[in-house]
Amino acid sequence: MKTPQLSPYLTFNGNCREAMTFYHQCLGGELQVQTFAETPAAGHVTPDAQHGVMHACLSSESLVLFGSDAGMQQVTPGNSVALALNFSSPEGIAAAFASLGQGGSVTMPLEDTFWGATFGMLTDRFGTNWMFNYDKKPAQ
Fold this sequence. Notes:
Layout: E1 5-12, H1 16-27, E2 30-35, E3 53-59, E4 64-69, E5 81-87, H2 90-101, E6 105-112, E7 117-123, E8 129-135
Parallel strand pairs: 1-4, 5-8
Antiparallel strand pairs: 1-5, 2-3, 3-4, 6-7, 7-8
Pfam family, one: Glyoxalase
Protein name: VOC family protein
InterPro entries: Glyas_Bleomycin-R_OHBP_Dase (IPR029068), Glyas_Fos-R_dOase_dom (IPR004360), PhnB-like (IPR028973)
């Protein structure tokens, strides 16, 4: 099994765009930002959160940093950072989700998403937050 890519995922209280822009200025790379209003998730957040960042990615040859505004939850110390794993196979994501979830709590079960991936989240038995993503290959 190929080892998944690991990236930090930061959650902000409405200032994700400002923070990620700052990190971009400091670290360089390419910054991509998508708001809740630009996605099918728009109907699941309050009108105030529509212009918040659903997903941001700062990337370069040696860096991948993800970020998001909390949307419907309050950010507190302990839930502002998650470790995001990106997998290359459906078997890999399922096995790691089951293993890391032992004794922990699933916050979002593995399921297909509107962005063409399988995605899920959990908190392990040590309190570490994990995100799991497998980008599916488009049907031929």
